[in-house]
Amino acid sequence: xxxxxxxxxxxxxxxxxxxxxxxxxxxxxxxxxxxxxxxxxxxxxxxxxxxxxxxxxxxxxxxxxxxxxxxxxxxxxxxxxxxxxxxxxxxxxxxxxxxxxxxxxxxxxxxxxxxxxxxxxxxxxxxxxxxxxxxxxxxxxxxxxxxxxxxxxxxxxxxxxxxxxxxxxxxxxxxxxxxxxxxxxxxxxxxxxxxxxxxxxxxxxxxxxxxxxxxxxxxxxxxxxxxxxxxxxxxxxxxxxxxxxxxxxxxxxxxxxxxxxxxxxxxxxxxxxxxxxxxxxxxxxxxxxxxxxxxxxxxxxxxxxxxxxxxxxxxxx
Length: 317
What we know:
This protein is of the alpha/beta class.
């Protein structure tokens, strides 16, 4: 996308927002309305791109992710916020931050918002990647209502998969838990009792492939050749946070069962002065509504921070 509103060049921006998803656009909207010179750099890789709809966002329930982002881009343009389609390859700290773009140019910023999100690495089972976001799902809060009462499968990938199988049982009474590469001995007695109480069938054996007819999931075939009719399969992707920029800047990181994320305060401020983070860049479970809220909080904090910095400089200068 071409540069917009003259916001791309040698001038120092108040804020560069890295990432144009829900968190980044929300931050940019607040910053633009606060009359702060802002540029969004967007590589165009939203996490929820495979989905045709998003849910649970009050007043936007059922809206397509692409439509949501398009509306957000239109809104920030009203306030003079610039947007460029590019990838940030490096950030060099100094008096200001020098933000290096993949196209070979660079921009300068007094403050940064890192909203680069994460990537979902899917189980290497034939058919899973092709149907992800359609009838291969990972979040019942996102898609459970739309597939309610259908025959569910849950593909185990670790201990957390038991929790997923129990959770999805609230949307269907017909749930089969495929242990796949997880040994039944790895399940605790409490796990087995809860699964039984929830009416979840536990099936050992590795899943070999998904069966599809007329562009619809119809079943799961195990390595032993047995077939289980299912129309929905829940999987547990391995989240890979896109936090390279934060690491390069020296941000303190924290290990979680779902990846390594930056340590942030309630506004999203990292341990690097002048650098905020929001959305899936700070946690696996940030839904669109959470990401938008996080971007808003970060932007509001930055507006106050810049104001006080400028006033203090005026007083002492």
